Amino acid sequence: MRLESDHLLLDVRPTEPTYFINRAMCLMALNAFKPALSDCQKAYELQFDTPTAKTLRLLARCHLGLGATGPALSLLRRALILEPDNPLAKQLQTRSLQ
Fold it and tell me: How far is the C-alpha of 86 from the C-alpha of 58, rounded, in Å?
């Protein structure tokens, strides 16, 4: 149900990065990392030069889900520059280094 409502919201406001992030989180919960990556990349593009730490972290999580550790670590470093105490970004970084 949530996935459907996020899809409808994107029809109404296709330039709102939050809606792409919300849908990506739903897709990640279903282990659908490829479409989630696409949504995260769209949110990243919409945020121009100021992506949020959350967007960077979720983009990294998608890369990890697809087995791409290098891009994930790069994104997590950027997220931790923005929010050095972000526990979720730290946890993902630790997990990706194992």
Answer: 13
CB 48 within 8 A of CB 66: no
Walk along the chain (98 residues) and give the pLDDT tens digit of each residue. Answer: 455 544 555 555 678 898 899 889 999 999 999 999 999 999 999 998 899 999 999 999 999 999 999 999 999 999 999 999 999 999 999 988 88
Say how far apart CA 24 and CA 32 lie, in whole Å.
Answer: 9
Task: Name every residue whose Cβ is closer than 8 Å to that of residue 19 and which is 6 or more positions away in sequence.
Answer: 6, 9, 10, 13
Q: Are 60 and 91 in contact (CB under 8 A)?
A: no
